[in-house]
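Hi R.,

Quick one: here's the Uracil phosphoribosyltransferase sequence you asked about.
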Amino acid sequence: MFILDKKNSIANHFLYQLRDSEIQKDRFRFRKNLERLGEIMAYEISKSLPFYQKSIKTPLGNSSVELIKYQPVLISVLRAAIPFYQGFLNFFDDTDSGFIGAYRKGETDDSKNIEIDYLYQAAPSIEGREVILIDPMLATGKSFIKTIENLYKNGNPSKIHIASVIAAPEGIDFLQKNTKQSVEIWICSLDEKLNDKSYIIPGLGDAGDLSFGVKL
Ligand SMILES: O=P(O)(O)OC[C@H]1O[C@H](OP(=O)(O)OP(=O)(O)O)[C@H](O)[C@@H]1O
Ligand SMILES: O=c1cc[nH]c(=O)[nH]1
Ligand SMILES: [Mg+2]
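And here's the predicted structure, written out as tokens:
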């Protein structure tokens, strides 16, 4: 598992602004910081992808470069993923994307009752491809598991990456126990625990609501 804030960097500033209960009220800045972390995580994940050598003709001579063989398919779990996903798309600018409409039902009950309503899936073939599942919050892990189960209808991926901003240990555990294929987990920060409503503590609150307003 890769955890971005294990090493100090400018990303700490973006995480700080996302978490701070006053600064996060600036919705534009909140979305922008998610997007910036999406770009940073895309960069980190890119280092793990297969590369091939390509020669280049400059106006003055010849050079060569290593390029990514196949850009990974990006899967965005609506709605909170939209700004974080945009960061990935800024870097993997020519790849295929898929969109999942999922949300946690029964958020006011205790965590065991949380179920995921899976309303919409529009995704390309993922057969033999590397896939990055993108959602800024990894709480119980149920949204990711539901997404993975349904995505297999679109083929067997060569590799699944999970990219999140803040994760709870309970969610990481749930993911590792409930995936038939091993998944590579990339997060910006690992928090303490879930509360009795399955919100991440200390977390940042509700990422979807902070980005777009409270949904009914
Ligand atoms: O790990 P889990 O317990 O499944 O929780 C994480 C999910 O909760 C949030 O979405 P939410 O259901 O609030 O929908 P939203 O994006 O519309 O706000 C978040 O964006 C994840 O999709
Ligand atoms: O803490 C949490 C848990 C799920 N979804 C969020 O937006 N925040
Ligand atoms: Mg939400």
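Residues 77, 79-80, 103-104, 114, 116, 135, 137-143, 171, 198, 206-208, 215 surround PRP (ligand 1) (CB under 6 Å).

Cheers,
M.
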